[in-house]
């Protein structure tokens, strides 16, 4: 591999796209960032600052922003797609004329497409048919990355070249990139944790404490594992940065947009008001709906996702939902050791004996 600077394109001018563009440039890459708003692109080039999404942080001055996709993509070796899931396919289609099979295409987006319940790297595959496809996911609050706080992420792909090139392009003294070959599991972890971050934000706004947050995160992990198994994914991946790592940060930090939506709901705002006030993407709002429907369809036990769905979309008060969840059927701690069915059977046996 040559030591020439890697040519990196970033599609998306939001907070994460901007943070990633700056990392790649700090790392010596030749970075072009595409955003649809020419005025914001001009501001990035002029002031080295993204006034809309990361107003308080300096961007590496060598990042070139443009609203011309051809200019950004034509020479790129690595393309990072940081576009919310509801616009992801459209933007990849716009980009398609300037994408070529030698490029490495990586999704950074933690969401699900409603039609077919597809994750974003699948869309990259469907739209291009290329083989160098991967995802990055992990505990990666864009604002903290912009502050150069020490951070780690995961690049996941079954293609070793994709993993190595991304590790080389982004790994630096404040951003460490771990490799995984479980693309689906890493991507699924990133999408699912947003659901529980909304719930954690609600709990915090209702004055619930650290025991509650810890219970919520741990039971969320159990629920995520159950869903992963149903989808044919390996739940072991959730023990890594893209599972438990991202769950911890997103359920704990007011810098998370999903957490903030939850917090606003807990303070009594309507869902529309909470999303409107945020002004940025909170993927979990859509993800909870899709995952809850899928769980029902496949008969997967996901009481937290079901409960949050009812709070968000059916007007059930959050405190009442929390009470119902606490009084729900008896269950097991680690289901890989003791199944829920075993716990319930034992209860039934005791009840029959007492009758
Ligand atoms: N922010 C974070 O901390 C992290 C985010 N992520 C993931 O990254 C993804 C992108 O997030 P992020 O950068 O934070 O998002 P933001 O909400 O900050 O920004 C979204 C960006 O996408 C652009 N966009 C939206 N719709 C379209 C469209 N139809 N055509 C072209 N551009 C469009 C917006 O442009 P415009 O301004 O013109 O509307 C904006 O540049 C999300 O799925 C998120 O889950 C992952 C890890 C961390
Ligand atoms: O995924 C993230 C942190 O890893 C960002 O979370 P939000 O989208 O909730 O801000």
UniProtKB/TrEMBL annotation:
Stated name of the protein: Glycerol-3-phosphate dehydrogenase [NAD(P)+]
Name the active site residues. Answer: 193 (proton acceptor)
Q: Name one GO molecular function term.
A: glycerol-3-phosphate dehydrogenase (NAD+) activity
Q: Which residues form the Glycerol-3-phosphate dehydrogenase NAD-dependent N-terminal domain?
A: 8-159
Pathway connected to this protein: Membrane lipid metabolism; glycerophospholipid metabolism
Q: Which UniProt keywords apply?
A: Cytoplasm, Lipid biosynthesis, Lipid metabolism, NAD, NADP, Nucleotide-binding, Oxidoreductase, Phospholipid biosynthesis, Phospholipid metabolism
One GO BP: carbohydrate metabolic process
Superkingdom, taxonomy of origin: Bacteria
Q: Describe the task this protein carries out.
A: Catalyzes the reduction of the glycolytic intermediate dihydroxyacetone phosphate (DHAP) to sn-glycerol 3-phosphate (G3P), the key precursor for phospholipid synthesis.
Which Gene Ontology CC terms are recorded? cytosol
**Annotated Glycerol-3-phosphate dehydrogenase NAD-dependent C-terminal domain residues:** 182-321
State whether keyword Isomerase applies. no
| Recorded family membership | Belongs to the NAD-dependent glycerol-3-phosphate dehydrogenase family.
Please list the residues that bind NAD(+). Answer: 12-17, 142, 257
What does the record give as the organism's lineage? Answer: Bacteria, Pseudomonadati, Pseudomonadota, Gammaproteobacteria, Oceanospirillales
Residues at which NADPH binds: 15-16, 36, 53, 110, 142, 257, 281, 283
Q: Locate the residues binding substrate.
A: 110, 257-258
Q: Which Pfam families does the entry link to?
A: NAD_Gly3P_dh_C, NAD_Gly3P_dh_N
Tell me its EC number(s), please. Answer: 1.1.1.94
PANTHER family xrefs = GLYCEROL-3-PHOSPHATE DEHYDROGENASE, GLYCEROL-3-PHOSPHATE DEHYDROGENASE [NAD(+)] 2, CHLOROPLASTIC
**Residue numbers binding sn-glycerol 3-phosphate:** 110, 138, 193, 246, 256-258
Intracellular or extracellular location(s): Cytoplasm
Q: Which gene encodes it?
A: gpsA
Which parts form a coiled-coil structure per UniProt?
Answer: none
Q: Which reaction does it catalyse?
A: sn-glycerol 3-phosphate + NADP(+) = dihydroxyacetone phosphate + NADPH + H(+); sn-glycerol 3-phosphate + NAD(+) = dihydroxyacetone phosphate + NADH + H(+)
């Amino acid at each position: 591999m040559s030591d020439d600077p890697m040519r990196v394109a970033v599609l998306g001018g939001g907070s994460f796209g901007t943070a990633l563009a700056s990392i790649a440039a700090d790392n010596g890459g030749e970075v072009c960032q595409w955003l649809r708003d020419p005025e914001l692109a001009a501001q990035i080039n002029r002031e080295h600052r993204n006034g809309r999404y990361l107003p308080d942080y300096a961007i590496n001055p060598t990042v070139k922003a443009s609203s011309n996709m051809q200019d950004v993509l034509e020479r790129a070796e690595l393309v990072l797609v940081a576009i919310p899931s509801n616009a992801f396919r459209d933007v990849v289609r716009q980009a398609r004329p300037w994408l070529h099979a030698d490029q490495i295409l990586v999704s950074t987006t933690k969401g699900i497409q409603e039609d077919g319940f597809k994750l974003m790297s699948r869309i990259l595959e469907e739209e291009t048919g290329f083989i160098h496809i991967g995802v990055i996911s992990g505990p990666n609050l864009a604002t903290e990355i912009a502050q150069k706080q020490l951070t780690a992420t995961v690049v996941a792909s079954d293609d070793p070249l994709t993993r190595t090139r991304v590790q080389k392009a982004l790994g630096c003294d404040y951003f460490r990139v771990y490799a995984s070959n479980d693309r689906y599991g890493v991507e699924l972890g990133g999408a699912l944790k947003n659901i529980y971050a909304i719930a954690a934000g609600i709990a915090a706004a209702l004055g619930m404490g650290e025991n509650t947050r810890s219970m919520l995160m741990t039971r969320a992990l159990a629920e995520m594992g159950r869903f992963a198994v149903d989808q044919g994914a390996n739940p072991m991946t959730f023990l890594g940065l893209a599972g438990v790592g991202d769950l911890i940060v997103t359920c704990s930090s007011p810098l998370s947009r999903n957490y903030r939506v939850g917090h606003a709901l807990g303070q009594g705002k309507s869902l529309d008001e909470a999303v409107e006030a945020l002004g940025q993407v909170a993927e979990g709002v859509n993800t909870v709906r899709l995952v809850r429907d899928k769980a029902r369809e496949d008969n997967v036990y996901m009481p937290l996702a079901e409960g949050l769905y009812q709070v968000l979309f059916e007007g059930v008060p959050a405190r009442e939902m929390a009470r119902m969840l606490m009084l729900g059927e008896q269950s097991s701690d680690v289901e890989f050791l003791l199944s829920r069915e075993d716990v319930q059977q034992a209860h039934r046996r005791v009840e029959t004996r007492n009758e």
